[in-house]
Amino acid sequence: MADAKAAAQEGENRKGTGKTQRNTMPRNIVPREMNPTLTTALSADVDSFLKNGFLVVEDAITHAQVESLRAALDETYARTSGGEQFIHELLEEDSRFEFLLDHPPALSRIKALLGNCIQLHSATARVTQGEVPDQGWHRDGPWPVDPNGTPYGSRPGQINCGYFLDELTEENGAIAFVRGSHRNPASPSHKPDPRPDEVRVYAKPGQAVLFDGWIYYRGVANVSGEMRRTCLMCYQNSWMKSRESFSGPVARRFREEGTDEQRLLMGAIEKW
User: Fold this and answer.
1) Are 167 and 115 in contact (CB under 8 A)?
2) What does the DSSP 8-state code read for residue 90?
3) Please, is 69 exposed, middle or buried when counting C-beta atoms within 10 Å of its C-beta (0-12, 13-18, 19+)?
4) CA angle 65-66-69, nearest 5°?
5) What pLDDT, in 10s, does the model give residues 215-262?
């Protein structure tokens, strides 16, 4: 009898726990509408992105913000890199990176493309030292692509946002894309060879370059002997798995104390 009562009580406790978990799910941060209302300019940017797979955003960050990001990245790279080109979980490294999470010039365009229900996939910086050879062609997403989608429209969605802190030139290397390849079901060759249909983007400090995670792209060789510095903020639908765990104190602060949008972007809704 005692065992039966204990089992019953345990069952009630489990029910109570489940109920508490459901009630504390932060549903209030889920946007009420999937798609934002677009201005004429945003609609034009969406059309351009859908056609080409990439978009250059003018005046995405100010000169002062460029200088602040340069200083933060130089200090972070000197402190943490160990000679590696990539710095991961960038938001945890310096508070000067934090504004990039929900920076309106880029985020408004990303929401225009992916909808309001999005989250951060990763926050990374890349410091490309000279001399670095041509990067091979690749796409970031591992999932197959079908230009027609599926009956439920489940084509994966990831958009990368690169803030280039140094002007890209022939010497330090452009970022190259194959226009429209985000709709190509075949994977790229992974060879570094130039292609006749490639488009080289020579981004300037202050600009942001948005590009589909499934587009063919590569970094062109840096032969300048100087650093090429980039901050990469990548976004995806809220129900997709993120690359980073976002378990550090900055990520936790955003999830617990941030705006509704910041909480959503940092994965405050852990389960659907």
Assistant:
1) no
2) G
3) buried
4) 85
5) 999 999 999 999 999 999 999 999 888 999 999 999 999 999 999 999
- CATH superfamily for domain 44-251: q2cbj1_9rhob like domain (2.60.120.620)
Sheet of 158-164, strands arranged across: 54-57, 208-212, 158-164, 228-237, 118-128, 86-87
Alpha-carbon torsion (11, 15, 16, 20), positive or negative: positive
Q: Which two tokens stand for residue 238?
A: 């809220």
Per the listing, tokens 């459901």 go with 22
**Residues ≥6 apart with Cβ < 8 Å to 235:** 107, 110, 114, 118, 119, 120, 121, 158, 159, 160, 161, 265
Phi/psi at 227 (5° precision): -75, 150
Domain boundaries, the chain: 44-251
